[in-house]
Design brief:
Length: about 220
């Protein structure tokens, strides 16, 4: 993409070294940007989770019925609330769980009804159905966390790997001209760059490092 822009004609003294630096550092900056975006998303989700937990603990719609207070342990109650909240759109106090056989095709279910249903299923030894529901809720709740960012990163690395690796390898391909005295050597992709020049030599270590970042890394 950089080579197609014709920057050598537009920018003075632009050579293959500049192209190498642009091609190799550009993706790294983009990956850092995606990592920062992922970090922000994780932070935002943590904030939303804490805010939701506060609502679930204090809102009377998510209160534990008196006759069930001692039925569920202190470790189970937050899980029950969090699982219910995934199907409780906009924390309105009712959940849409009609697609689960455990809840007998009820379209809307209050939190107390939800707890009574869970307790009744336990007494009827339907624990496998409870486990399936809990696992499905947790899986769906966490499925899309950062999913699009990871997909974008994998797609991006797949797209740029070959082109970037080729640019790095071509930095080591010098063409020698024995016809002149003394013999000279220029970069095959850019005859304006002398392979014996200090500019070329100063970026050899950089190019070797990028070999370990891209084609080898």
């Amino acid at each position: 993409m950089i080579s197609s822009l014709g920057l050598a004609c537009r920018i003075g003294n632009f050579d293959y070294v500049d192209s190498l630096v642009g091609v190799t550092l550009g993706p790294i900056f983009f990956v850092v940007f995606l990592a920062s975006l992922f970090g922000l998303e994780v932070t935002f989700r943590m904030y939303k989770t804490k805010k939701l937990d506060a609502i679930l603990r204090t809102d009377e719609r998510y209160a534990i019925p008196n006759d069930l207070v001692h039925v569920f342990s202190t470790e189970e109650i937050p899980v029950m609330r969090r699982t219910f909240s995934y199907y409780d759109k906009d924390t309105c106090g009712t959940a849409d769980v009609a697609h689960f056989a455990l809840f007998e095709e009820k379209k809307k279910l209050s939190f107390s009804e939800y707890l009574y249903t869970i307790q009744r299923a336990r007494l009827e030894d339907r624990r496998s159905e409870i486990s399936d529901f809990m696992e499905a809720a947790e899986t769906k709740a966490n499925a899309r966390q950062g999913e699009y960012i990871i997909f974008t990163l994998l797609l991006f690395t797949f797209i740029i790997l070959i082109g970037t690796s080729s640019t790095i390898f071509e930095y080591f391909q010098c063409a020698s001209f024995e016809e002149v005295e003394p013999a000279v050597s220029y970069l095959a992709r850019d005859y304006s760059l002398n392979c014996a020049s200090s500019r070329y030599k100063s970026y050899v270590v950089y190019a070797v490092t990028m070999l370990f970042v891209y084609p080898l890394g």
